[in-house]
Specification:
Length: 597
């Protein structure tokens, strides 16, 4: 390659490369933009159950195909990739994009109620595009100056919203998901506990964590699986699925909230048997999506009892607790932006919580993923995780190094998810969507639905609606899960929940989910996961319930006609509407297979 020493020629070559990149980007964006616009338009038209698409046919939420069908469809592309040849064919690219969009779930559909995320905010989508173009990693100020300052200022604003910043407290970090944020909260708590104890040190001055009393982790019996997984990572148990002597499951009340009296008794027994151990309390409930007031939960002064050796002055000067309260608000934490429900769901957060997690990709509708961990003690994240890699972090020589945040996390290079949050907050302002109560109240008017964990007068907000579809013989007789007396009835409700969920999925009408809490008196139930992307007005609620009721009634009719043992799989349902749906999707699959590449 010819060596070029002339600075002007170097600049010209650099501009030429940038122009080529920009030209290719423009061409690719034009192709993708047209496809995405059609995709979003069809999802919009398909929000009503019978909403037509551009071709006049109802647009399903998902064009369901068996995994083997999709694998077979993908083989042609795989062979092209494995041949090692670049295929710069617009036709092949468009064909692949068509397959990608056709066989993917339309999370922008109003009846995508399967997960805790849904349609992403358009401003968040724009932020994703900007992040891909910038390709900056916000680990040091020198690598991503604007994004690093933006993230630090956004963390400060969130701490102010909680109430920590006024006390010169608060720190935080955007993380790749809520489970990862929960892990950082646990490692930060462990570091704080060990710093506050008279830990033994090696000849090099490092602490021996193996010599420290093991941390006890208390979480709800309905808590998130990441608690056990993170405990396993920290060496508190052998494997996430095994019993653990250091992870304690606190019973819940009928509404799924942590039983505070039971927690207090468990903490008392723990402290008597292990007086030197520290305590990490995790408060959350992912399945039903409800949040109870922290002030209500911790007004028992448990924190004071466990931290009796810390007087007020020492707490003000250096926050070193033996009792750590972590609030996993991955779902309900978005109530921080709701003037209506913040005082109910998050009351006491500023006074009692030591760490707090919020997932903006759930209720707030940010594109996956956008999670943030906030910690009360400023500087703790850095102290707990810093590896001080000298080839990246130049604390001694770089005056801007005080802005570096890469050493606060377990990774270094990462995506600047803070930009999505920032642009959405700037563009949308403080708004919250309240859909669950509207749907729950509508269900109460229909005898075929039985709500789980809801009452007509509910003192706490919830973002999910959990329910059963009742067969005709149980309607009017069963008013709560406690009225389901026999094992046969429980099995019937559980089976009907799974089959209704599956039938709606295969027909492309709606995508729900079903859950079990491991209680013999509470069989598997259905769950609607509501998020902030859609407003569920009365007509949309009625349409959704009509769809579920019609499919559920048809399942019950076929159940009675064919016998329960004959229809364990919804694919064997013989009703005309469901059978038509299955046949239509099968024919779609055959047409797709015959189109070729």
């Amino acid at each position: 390659m010819e060596r070029v020493d002339d600075p002007k020629k170097l600049d010209d070559q650099g501009l030429e490369v940038q122009e080529l990149v920009a030209s290719e980007f423009r061409e690719l964006v034009q192709i993708v933009e047209r496809k995405v616009e059609q995709y979003l338009f069809r999802a919009e038209r398909g929000r009503s159950e019978n909403g037509p698409t551009t071709d006049g046919a109802p647009r399903p939420l998902v064009s369901y195909q068996r995994p083997e069908t999709i694998e077979h469809r993908m083989e042609g592309y795989v062979h092209q990739i494995m041949d090692g040849e670049s295929v710069r064919s617009r036709a092949v690219l468009e064909c692949f994009l068509d397959d990608l969009l056709r066989y993917s779930v339309r999370t922008s559909h109003a009846y995508f109620l399967h997960r805790l995320y849904g349609a992403s905010d358009p401003m968040g989508q724009v932020a994703e595009l900007l992040l891909s173009v910038l390709n900056n990693s916000p680990d040091t100020f020198s690598a991503a100056p604007f994004l690093v300052v933006l993230e630090r200022r956004l963390i400060q604003a969130l701490c102010e919203r909680i109430g920590w910043e006024t006390l010169r407290q608060g720190d935080g970090l955007f993380c790749p998901g809520g489970s990862y944020a929960n892990l950082l909260a646990m490692t930060s708590a462990r570091h704080a506990f060990h710093e506050s104890s008279s830990s033994k040190r090696s000849e090099h001055g490092h602490r021996h964590h193996c010599c420290e009393p093991r941390m006890g982790v208390f979480t709800s019996e309905q808590g998130h699986y990441s608690v056990r997984r993170n405990a396993s990572i920290l060496g508190l148990c052998d494997a996430p699925g095994e019993a653990c002597s250091d992870v304690f499951l606190v019973p819940c009340d009928e509404a799924g909230r942590m039983d505070v009296e039971a927690l207090r008794q468990m903490l008392h027994c723990f402290r008597r048997s292990r007086p030197e151990s520290s305590v990490f309390v995790n408060r959350f409930r992912p399945a039903a999506g409800s949040m109870a007031s922290l002030r209500r939960g911790f007004q028992l002064n448990a924190a004071h009892a466990l931290n009796a050796d810390h007087d007020a002055e020492s707490t003000k000067s250096r926050y070193r607790p033996r009792f750590w309260i972590h609030v996993d608000g991955a779902l309900g934490g978005s109530f921080l932006f709701s003037t209506q429900f913040r005082s109910v769901a998050l009351s006491g957060l500023e006074a009692y919580a030591d760490s707090f997690v919020l997932n903006a990709h759930k209720l707030l509708g940010a594109p996956l993923q956008c999670s943030v961990l906030l910690v009360r003690e400023r500087g703790l994240l850095l102290a707990a995780h810093a590896a001080r890699a000298s080839y990246l972090f130049h604390d001694e020589f770089d005056p801007d190094a005080r802005y570096d945040i890469g050493d606060m996390t377990l990774t270094c290079s990462r995506r600047s998810d803070a930009l999505k949050f920032w642009l959405m907050w700037m563009w949308r302002g403080n708004q919250a969507v309240w859909n669950a109560r509207r749907i729950a109240e509508a269900m109460m008017q229909r005898p075929c639905f039985l709500l789980v964990g809801w009452s007509r007068v509910q003192p706490y907000p919830a973002t999910n609606v959990c329910f059963y579809f009742l067969p005709p013989e149980l309607r009017g007789r069963v008013h709560s899960s406690a009225d389901v007396k026999t094992c046969a009835e429980r099995e019937q409700l559980a089976r009907l929940s799974v089959r209704l969920c599956r039938a709606l999925q295969v027909a492309g009408k709606a995508l729900l989910n079903y859950c079990t809490l491991g209680r013999s008196d509470l069989p598997t139930f259905l769950r609607l996961a509501l998020h902030g992307a859609h407003i569920y007005h009365d007509e949309r609620v009625r349409d959704l319930l009509d769809v579920m009721e019609r499919f559920g009634d048809r399942l019950c009719i076929d159940d009675a006609t064919l016998g329960r043992n004959d229809i364990a799989d919804p694919g064997s349902i013989q009703s005309s509407e469901l059978a038509d749906g299955f046949r239509e999707h099968a024919s779609q699959g055959r047409r797709a297979m015959n189109e070729g590449f």
